[in-house]
Write a structure and sequence with these properties.
This protein is of the alpha/beta class. The chain folds into two domains: about 1-180, UDP N-Acetylglucosamine Acyltransferase, domain 1, CATH 2.160.10.10; about 200-240, no CATH class. The chain has helices spanning about 1-25, 35-40, 40-55, 65-75, 200-220, 230-240, and strands at about 80, 85, 90, 100, 105, 110, 115-120, 130, 135, 140-145, 150, 155, 160, 170, 175-180. The strands form three sheets. Strands 3-6-9-12-14-15 form a six-stranded mixed β-sheet. The longest helix is centred in the N-terminal third of the chain and has 23 residues, at about 1-25.
Length: about 250
């Protein structure tokens, strides 16, 4: 009876993993389950990990790491046998993905190629990220250390995340920081990487606008008409001395 229960559980996991690929990979539309099982490297790596993880959990020596090494050689995806991965996990393309020993991944998580869930230093214990349910992590993103990525969050491509990520937020940059929080994206996988905010570009635009305002106040634009720079009046108008500063401050002042 136990054997049949194990087979049923394994079949259900495989079915859900294949369904995740069909749902989240546009290239899998109209592709049958047998073809996905035969040709999708992310599915191969995950199936190999599920076997290696089960063997690791019951204390089988050598074989779990051997399975992980073969899967890495065949797929380019490295998953430590001890990593905990939930249902409905999908790795799109997958080449270069690394998932460390103490990483924990929830249900319905999507990773793209080049993602690293890595550790920092040589500390023992929990040293890799925890990724909660319904998280999407873009190509080349690096999540380092025992941080937590909250439910429903999205990590932009090539971001480097070293601090906890709040639930339902979007994180970009190096180091990564939230730029959208609480419900700005739908539940489930979100592959819109084109319209992510760019805080660096926004800051540059704000600085450029403020410089233009200062130049107008100092009379250095146009025909050069305006008060001479240096008086208390024009310093105040330009925000460079006593008086009222003009224009929006990118620093929030």
């Amino acid at each position: 009876m136990l054997r049949f229960a194990l087979l049923a559980r394994t079949a259900a996991e495989i079915k859900r993993d294949v369904a995740a690929a069909q749902t989240r990979d546009p290239a899998a539309r109209g592709v049958g389950s047998p073809e996905i099982l035969a040709t999708w490297p992310g599915v191969h790596a995950l199936l190999a990990h599920r076997v290696a993880h089960a063997l690791h959990g019951v204390g089988v020596p050598i074989l779990p790491r051997a399975i992980a090494a073969v899967a890495r050689a065949l797929t380019g995806i490295e998953i430590h046998p001890a990593a905990i991965i939930g249902d409905g996990f999908f790795i799109d393309h997958g080449m270069g993905v690394v998932i460390g020993e103490t990483a924990q991944i929830g249900s319905d998580v999507t990773l793209y190629q080049g993602v690293t869930l890595g550790g920092t230093g040589f500390a023992t214990g929990k040293r890799h990220p925890t990724v909660e349910d319904n998280v999407t992590i873009g190509s080349g993103a690096k999540l380092l250390g025992p941080i937590t990525v909250g439910h429903g969050s999205k990590v932009g491509a090539n971001s480097v995340v070293i601090h906890d990520v709040p639930p339902n937020s979007t994180v970009v940059g190096n180091p990564g920081h939230p730029v959208r929080v609480e419900g700005r994206r739908p539940e489930g996988p979100d592959v819109d990487w084109v319209h992510l905010p760019d805080p660096i570009a926004d800051a540059i635009k704000a600085l450029a606008a403020r410089i233009a305002t200062l130049e107008r106040a100092a009379g250095t634009t146009g025909n050069g008409a305006g008060p001479e720079l240096g008086s208390e009046y024009d310093l105040g108008e330009a925000g460079l001395g006593p008086g009222r500063a003009v224009g929006p401050s990118p620093a929030g002042g």
